[in-house]
Write a structure and sequence with these properties.
By secondary structure, this protein is α/β, with parallel strands linked by helices. Helix content is about 30%, strand content about 10%. The protein contains ten helices and nine strands. The strands form two sheets. Strands 1-5-4-2-3 form a five-stranded parallel sheet. It has a four-stranded parallel sheet with strand order 7-6-8-9, with helices on one face. Keywords: Repeat, Transferase. This is Sulfurtransferase. One of its GO terms (molecular function) is thiosulfate-cyanide sulfurtransferase activity. InterPro entries: Rhodanese-like_dom, Rhodanese-like_dom_sf, Thiosulfate_sulfurtransferase, Thiosulphate_STrfase_CS.
């Protein structure tokens, strides 16, 4: 399966993958969820007391996935009900803790899109606990504050701010281009826009596959979705600033204002 998996494809393979619902627990239990999906709410794997940025820490991550019955070699599909941005964060976290990227997938769409044509349930599975063992990713996309500072003067790197235009105008990294992550999402399908439209949007901002692309937002949530989109499109030189503007401003990084 590709990084993004369609509802039709997932429905065919539900028995072969581990499905993770990252919405709040009350949504999972009260509204319903995909058959067989386990609940790992977004708030449970976000913490500034863990590792870099908002990563939860390797021990916390291991506990969450072990309790959910997920093994380190399982194929995982994650979803939310917000066009995939919270689920994308789950998948990027899994990648940063060493899960094989080829086995990490985002539902193309979200719960609302799935429920239009596919079965949902309120039955809660009781998975057999595992012993999930995270490890450091072999080729981590994470970059440090110092590496971002150096990138400001590197013409071969394009800095991408994935926040909304008004946030960008209030303050952004010098030379960064603005690309609201929602510009890559189709309002009707709640999933990705067609490939040619995605490529057009990116080309308009100078975000080319032959350049190193360094992504940031406020707390590394929104860049998670854009990161997965770029990987889906074949971008191979991606940098992920986990600290994002939260760390950048705390450490006195240079900022610009205006459009």
């Amino acid at each position: 399966m590709d990084t993004f998996v369609s509802a039709e494809r997932l429905a065919y393979r539900l028995d072969d993958v581990r499905v993770v619902d990252v919405r709040d627990g009350w949504e999972y239990e009260g509204i319903g969820h995909l058959p067989g999906a386990v609940s790992i709410p977004f708030a449970e794997f976000r913490s500034r007391d863990g590792d870099a940025g908002m990563l939860p820490g390797a021990d916390r991550w291991a506990d969450l996935l072990s309790s959910a019955g997920i093994d380190a070699d399982d194929e995982v599909v994650a979803y939310d009900d917000t066009h995939g941005v919270f689920a994308a964060r789950f998948l990027v976290t899994a990648e940063l803790y060493g899960h094989d990227t080829g086995k990490l997938h985002l539902l193309d769409g979200d719960y609302s899109a799935w429920s239009r044509e596919h079965e949902v349930t309120t039955d809660v599975p009781d998975p057999e606990p595992t012993e999930y063992e995270p490890h450091e990713s072999d080729e981590s996309p994470l970059v440090t504050f110092e590496e971002v500072e150096a990138a400001l003067a590197d013409d071969g790197i394009v800095l991408v701010d994935t926040r909304e235009a008004w946030e960008y105008e209030e303050g952004h990294l010098p030379g960064a281009v603005q690309l609201d992550w929602m510009e890559l999402v189709d309002a009707d399908s709640r999933g990705l826009k067609p490939r040619d439209e995605l490529q057009s949007v990116l080309a308009d901002r100078g975000i080319a596959p032959d350049r190193r692309v360094l992504l940031y937002c406020n707390t590394a949530r929104r860049i998670s979705h854009t990161y997965l989109v770029l990987r889906h499109l074949g971008y191979g030189n991606l940098a992920f600033y986990e600290g994002s503007l939260t760390e950048w401003e705390e450490r006195g990084g240079a900022m610009e204002t205006g459009a």
